[in-house]
Amino acid sequence: MSEVFATTGTIAAIATAVVPQQGSVGIVRVSGSEAMALAQTLFHTPGRQVWESHRILYGYIRHPQTQQLVDEALLLIMKAPRSYTREDVVEFHCHGGIMAVQQVLQLCLENGARLAQPGEFTLRAFLNGRLDLTQAEGIADLVGAKSPQAAQTALAGLQGKLAHPIRQLRANCLDILAEIEARIDFEEDLPPLDDKVIISEIEKIAVEITRLLATKDKGELLRTGLKVAIVGRPNVGKSSLLNAWSRSDRAIVTDLPGTTRDVVESQLVVGGIPVQVLDTAGIRETTDQVEKIGVERSRRAANAADLVLLTIDASAGWTEGDREIYEQVQHRPLILVINKIDLVQESERKTLQSQIPNQNSKIVTAAAQNQGIDALETAILELVKAEKIQAADMDLAINQRQAAALTQAKISLEQVQTTIVQQLPLDFWTIDLRGAIQALGAITGEEVTESVLDRIFSKFCIGK
Hints:
Layout: E1 11-14, E2 25-31, H1 35-42, E3 43-44, E4 55-62, E5 69-78, E6 89-95, H2 99-110, E7 114-115, H3 120-127, H4 133-143, H5 148-158, H6 163-185, H7 195-213, H8 216-224, E8 226-232, H9 238-246, E9 264-270, E10 273-279, H10 289-304, E11 307-313, H11 320-329, E12 334-339, H12 346-355, E13 361-364, H13 373-386, H14 400-421, H15 426-444, H16 450-457
Parallel strand pairs: 1-7, 8-10, 8-11, 11-12, 12-13
Antiparallel strand pairs: 1-2, 2-6, 3-4, 4-5, 5-6, 9-10
């Protein structure tokens, strides 16, 4: 392994968030051959407590030379191979905050352990056969999950729901390769290969790869979320819409135009998808220098958003200002929000509907009355599905690295089919078939390079 991931020796790290005056428990995790000896050096247990695997001991952490008391704590023992890393693991469960865990970690480092690199605990779990790469990535996704659906998808990866079909596809490719190589080595003793059967088997594998690739966009959406910008003229009810949607008073609401001078953010979950909502300043021509800055930020937010909610005031009708903003954002995924609908008569609604562009999704709201929010969320989910961002299989979602490997495997299989159709020698069939096998093996870690491991595990936190 590279110097970044030198997986020798005993490692230690703080495994919980360190926040001043918050958190009742802080954990220092130690893994390696000297973990037990280090624990026995630092941890003192009153009475006759038994030091055996998967027990929790009560006692005191003391400086080994001065015997100064550092913390009153619990010690969790997990001996190899029944641990996360399949090495001896001990965890010091200290009081929360900053000082206790940092002092305990420092004692560990002074007495034989070294500070773990980001993701090194999970890397050891992978190298020791405890996890494959898809499960390791599932752990990272679970830690970073922003919604219940994202957490469920991460758990599916952790439980091997992706690894199983990938291994099956690779096994199928290996079976085909064995058949071809047998004909190469024992051509006179075996019947000739049926080209059509081989092509049919490869097509079945390619179909399954295509199904897995269809989950990529949904996976990215669940991991990163959807950025939604609420834009429109001043005083059309953008802030009221944000407050009604988030069920909080995140934005200031007044009858004065131009109240919002900067972008206000709120985090929501819609249909299992994390949504970052941006309430922007009203877009209009102005001489106010502060408001000009807010307007420019609004335009940038709209251009960077995954979805734009162009909000108009139903009582004011479709104005020239609305049209100008529409022309600026119509190239983006867009929903027209007709707000303050409670202030207009039915006849006025029909007139307004005839003035608004027809090619976009439209919903009506009365944000100040908390009306229309369900319709807004439904429209967002329908747009997401129409854009094919979310695949039908909600139990599985691949990431960008896995998608790249699957794409490479699919290309290699297509090349195998081309080679067969061109009636090239059997040796040529095996070249791209091996490429597909290697690409599939890279997903689970059966065939993986050091640089790939560096890239994956460097994204983990230090204590994981």
